[in-house]
Amino acid sequence: MTATAATRRLAIAVLILAAIAAFFFFDLGRYLSLELLKSERDTLADYRTAHPLLLGTIYFATYVAVAALSLPGAAFMTLAGGALFGVLMGTALVSFASAAGATLAFLVARMIIGDWVQQRFGARLAAINAGIDRDGAFYLFALRLVPLFPFFVVNLVMGLTRLPARTFYWVSQIGMLPGTLVYVYAGTQLGEFRISLGLVLAFVLLGVFPLFARKAIAVLKARRLYAHWPRPARFDYNLVVIGAGSAGLVSAYIGAATRAKVALIEEHQMGGDCLNTGCVPSKALLRSAKLAAQFANAREFGIVSAQATVDFAAVMERVARVIKTIEPHDSVARYTALGVNCLRGTARITSPWTVTVRDGNTETALTTRSIVIAAGSRPLVPPIPGLDQVGYYTSDSVWNLRELPRRLVVLGGGPIGCELAQAFARLGARVTQVEMLPRILVREDPDVSAQVQAQFEREGIRVLVDHSARQFLHAGEEKILVASHQGHDVRLAFDAVLVAVGRVANTSGYGLEELGIGTTRARTVATDGALQTIYPNIFACGDVAGPYQFTHTAAHQAWYAAVNALFGNLRRFNADYRVIPWATFTDPEVARVGLNEIEAKEKNIAATVTVYGIDDLDRAIADGNARGMVKVLTAPGSDRILGATIVGEHAGDLLAEFVLAMKHGMGLNKILGTIHTYPTLAEANKYVAGNWKRGTVTRGQWAILDAYQGWRRGANGLGAVIAQLSALVRDQRPAYASDAAEKVDRRAAAGASH
Ligand SMILES: Cc1cc2nc3c(=O)[nH]c(=O)nc-3n(C[C@H](O)[C@H](O)[C@H](O)COP(=O)(O)OP(=O)(O)OC[C@H]3O[C@@H](n4cnc5c(N)ncnc54)[C@H](O)[C@@H]3O)c2cc1C
User: 710: domain range?
Assistant: First the structure.
């Protein structure tokens, strides 16, 4: 930039700032008020009749100045345009003045800092610039039509982009026209200054206009998207579902149940991850592992001669048998009987209405009104040097093992890593679990992680937190993992490594890129609340859509995706994520619904935390499982449950009571008022509610009861009672010092309903 250009810019900037400062200093905003317009209405009307051109010119120039200087008052000026000049002339004046003023503001922003912004942030703005080059006019049109952002903000921000000024002008002129018309019309009614049907209509129009505009934008957007693709005259299917895992199966089921013609395409195995490589095999493996652990602890139960010899191959064969037993639930036969056309092969979306299925050398094209993407996820394998050379297992391949690795490294301290680490350790492997974060199960509260880690260590698992896997190598016959811990290298020899550091959604290779369906920062398919992608007839659900990676959330989302795909033209439903439970099936199990303490803190949500220790529970003691806790977060001063975490035997099952309570708005008082069978683990839920209740009893309330009972015994006269009450009743301190101080008779409490 030359020195003259820089000086000119500075001068203009100073002039503009001076004009803005003068506006505020002299309080010129007081002239832009409806009150003033009302009081001067007759004078202005006379003036308009006498000098229409002059008033029009003054009005036009003022509007341009207000818009160009981004002063507050554009909405007033538009209403005044209607009040002074009527609908036709008012709309014409406002339309040209607002577009001209907006373009001046746009040019000023561009001239003063536009170049600087592009130079300074050019690299980071690359994506925005590309978007503006491609779709800038459309973005601006949408912003003008749906006034989500203030008028002046749009002018200034657009000035910082590379949108051509000419485009900015004409798009603004056209895009603002419908809104201008509505506001000017409202202005003509304000000119009447009395409540009239027209005035009411004007306000109704102002209210509904953004809704109509948004709908119009959605229709326009969809038309632009679909314009690239030829639309079939007729469709083979109402719904094509890609992937027959938990999400795809439920989508297909909903489709068939609502009499839709549905095709379900699976390239690998019906049932997907959950049945074949996820929930089912892992829980079957954990069952064998638990039995082995119970044998190891048999002496504690008085059984002195039990001894477990694990035949690992037989354990894995049982796992395979369990899968086979459950397989029919998810089979082609079952879904075909339900009316679904099950196709084997790899699906590819070739247009918003066409999916091809490739099976070997055969390719079939299907046309469909709607598509549900349920392509799932796969294990994430981090690019650690040497990993490929030493070889590794993931949750996809570990089920093929038939020989127990002597020394197993489990990379990852999340739910899958923890479940499999404990299972393999209990079956006899020497397991080292390596986690780069400071604790395992890092999404749970620290006390939860600590309880699970303590149990793991008791069982002989070496848990290395804060260890980051840096390299794998061969040293002679040995396989070695080099992990970095607090600046030092730690070398671990192993026979097999299981990589369990997370799962990544399957989003490439089947047409999403070609259709321009984007992904989120979490690398899942980008959808809106109704699970719709940018195409109104293409939806996604399950692991591929996130944000959760559970079978039950996949099934939950699938209902919304399928219903919206089939009936979205009538009504759409946003997926409801308010109450999402989950469990990690370690021993002790960890189950959670809603908030825990760390999330409450992160989100700055005030919560009362109540804990009940399961070490105190009769049934847990009798079973030899007296460890764990129930922790509940409630809204302060209320029994409304914000979240619950349970650690212990059958935590996943026990959680159901809290899930139900949260879903249906029942608080801890309702759980406390429910009879729980004695002796069961479920009583823990009632006891945590009891602990919460006792925490609400104040010393003042105790004082009232003391005085009442004393009076009933004749120990206190009425005067003494009143004196005692007035002194103590305002004492709001908790009556019970701590949960542990007060023991309750379990048998009595189990039957008591309050
Ligand atoms: C070890 C382990 C344990 C787990 N334990 C639990 C648990 O206890 N509880 C729980 O709730 N969740 C658990 N999960 C998670 C659960 O398995 C997943 O969240 C769930 O299976 C996701 O279902 P989905 O339908 O979204 O995906 P998937 O089950 O992965 O199904 C996607 C399907 O799409 C197919 N596919 C992909 N692309 C194409 C294409 N182009 N054409 C045709 N077919 C295609 C795939 O072959 C696959 O079958 C566990 C996961 C693992 C790995």
Answer: 699-728
pLDDT tens digits for range 393-430? 999 999 999 999 999 999 999 999 999 999 999 999 99
Q: Please tell me the total count of domains within the chain.
A: 4
* Pair 663, 685 in one domain: yes
pTM of the predicted structure, to 2 decimals: 0.79
Q: 């070609």: which residue's tokens?
A: 514
Domain annotation covers residue 400: no
Asked if residue 77 is part of any domain, the answer here is yes
Same domain, residue pair 534 and 593? no
Nearest CA residue ID for atom 1, ligand 1: 278
Tell whether 342 and 202 lie within a shared domain: no
- Atom 48 of ligand 1, residue of closest alpha carbon: 272
Q: How many CA atoms lie within 13 A of 635 on its CB side?
A: 8
Residue 123: inside a domain: yes
The answer to whether residue 96 is domain-embedded is: yes
Sign of the torsion formed by the C-alpha atoms of 236, 239, 244 and 250: negative
Specify whether 153 is located in the same domain as 270: no
List, for residues 27-66, the tens digit of each pLDDT value. 888 888 888 887 887 888 889 899 999 999 999 999 999 9
Mean pLDDT of 335-344: 98
Which residues, including other chains, have CB under 8 Å from residue 371's CB and lie 6 or more apart? 239, 240, 241, 242, 349, 352, 355, 537, 538, 539, 565
Distance 376 CA to ligand 1 centre (A): 5
Residues with CB under 6 A from ligand 1: 242-248, 265-268, 272-274, 277-279, 282, 346-347, 374-377, 395, 416, 506, 510, 542-544, 549-552, 554, 585
Residue 554 CA, ligand 1 centroid: distance in Å: 9
Residue 106 and residue 204 in one domain? yes
Name the residue at shortest CA distance from atom 51 of ligand 1.
278
CB–CB of 238/261 below 8 Å?
A: yes
In a shared domain, residues 266 and 141: no
Residues 608 and 694: beta-carbon distance below 8 Å: no
Co-location of 599 and 530 in the same domain: no
Which ligand 1 atom is at minimum distance from the Cα of 283? 8
